[in-house]
Amino acid sequence: MSLYVYALVAKGPSEELGTGMSGEALRVVASGRLLAVVGDMYAPPPVTPTALYEHDRTIRRMTAITDAVLPLRFGSIVDGELDLARRLEPAEATLEAALTRVAGREQMTVRLYERQPRVEEDTRMSAPPAVAADLGPGARYLLERRRTLEHDPHRAALDAVLAAPASFIRAQRVESHGSRPLIASVHHLIERGQGAAYAAAVHAGTANLIDAAVTVSGPWPPYAFASGELT
Amino acid sequence: MTTPSRTEAARLLDEADASLLDLVDNVLTKGVVIDGEIILGLAGVDLVYLRLGAILCAADRIKAQR
Amino acid sequence: MSQKKTGSLGAREVDALRQELEHRVGELAPARWNADPEDVQRSVAKLVLTLMEFLRKLFEKQAIRRMEAGSLSPEETEALGLALMRLEETITSLAAQFELSPDDLNLDLGPLGRLQ
After folding, report:
1. Over A184-220, what HEC string results?
2. Which chains touch B (3 or more CB pairs under 8 A)?
3. For residues A123 and A153, what is the distance between their CA atoms, to the nearest angstrom?
4. H or E element: which one contains A26?
5. Residue A199 CB neighbours (<10 A)
């Protein structure tokens, strides 16, 4: 019998935990200084949309009944409570800090997209300035790097996404993407209940972007703010 | 640990609508990882990076001595 | 907490997100019982290269700022530029050997913001 681990919590909830993705009873177990919400499971769950939705549903239920919930990745299975303790122990301080950071908070996600393929003329940078013939390759490299950095076509759009909801932001994670038209994903940790106001601020602050568009989703449990790996 | 194989992941993603994609992003690429010893063992490195980043950014703002 | 989404998405945007996720999910560590030593190496390489890339961006920003301020001699400019050029080449070629893309080496500093 294995344990499926859904999330870490700071306090044992006083309300009913309910059931997990396989209909199993949930319980809270102590692991060093941490508390984990687990369910008994005979076999690992299949990777299907239903299983993913049930995992998320279970974590959302935890956020409804306790303040600080740090989700684990889907499919986190351990052999038992000792195995769990062994795995969590090296990162105990990091995980405690992460729990403190997400207490009373939830995640909003903004994705930034190029609005339409840029016209060739728009993307061409101004011609490189004439440089003295006696500049070596190192100096020319630095000049070219400066030109490239100044002409980042997406910087204004990303800055708008980061600035518009500034008063709501308690923590931030930015992911750059290579698959166009997707440019970047921004995850913001906000106080619970501020989701609609956050979304309104982001849409208002990005409405005038000519060449980019955003989608805002959430609130989510704080998946992107779970310390434990580098994103 | 249930980590999707490449074919499972590809199939799941092929058929996913926009909201399932958002869900996949959250539950399959984020959240605390307790499998993969190298990742958890290096969880403390996240803090090191943040501290290092703070030191380096502070150094960045120090005016040049000359 | 029930989740909503605002803003509209066309098929191209959805496909782009799908492609990104295929790459990210495909990158995940394999199941324990299939652990491949090469994947462990790759995880370590990714960490090291991400840190190198972070330092490279920081040094580059500093070098450009000093170049613009005129506080570098021509010799210093040339030497710094060459060093940074070689650093970029080294990082790119090492990353390619481990099948890592530039996006894979992006280090977000959380509360400290992006370095760009």
Report:
1. EEEEEEEECCCHHHHHHHHHHHHCCCCCEEEEEEEEE
2. A, C
3. 8
4. strand A26-31
5. 24
Residue B1 inside a domain? The answer is: no
Closest among B58, A137, A132, C80 to C71, alpha carbons compared:
C80
| ipTM value | 0.87
With contact defined as beta carbons under 8 Å apart, do C65 and B60 qualify?
Answer: no
Which pLDDT tens digit goes with each residue over A68-109? 999 999 989 999 999 999 888 878 888 898 899 999 999 999
Look at residue A208 and tell me whether its pLDDT is greater than 50: yes
Q: Tell me the chain C residues in contact with residue B13 when contact means C-beta distances shorter than 8 Å.
A: 18, 21-22, 25
| Closest CA relative to residue B40, chosen from A91, C59, A73, A222 | A91
Distances (CA, A) of A192 to A64, A169, A201, A205: 11, 11, 16, 21
**Residue among B52, B33, B45, B55 nearest C47 (CA):** B45
Cβ distance C6 to A213 less than 8 Å, yes or no, reads: no
Helical H runs in chain B?
Answer: 6-14, 18-29, 37-41, 43-61
Task: Give A179's contacts in chain B (Cβ within 8 Å).
Answer: none
Mean pLDDT across C41-60: 82
In a domain, B17, yes or no: yes
CA distances from C46 to A214, B55, C50, C96, C102 (A): 30, 22, 6, 11, 11
Q: Name the residue among A226, B46, A95 with its Cα closest to residue C50.
A: B46
Domain that holds residue B33: 6-65
* Dihedral class, residue A10 (left if φ above 0, else alpha if ψ from -120 to 50, else beta): alpha
Domain tally, chain B = 1
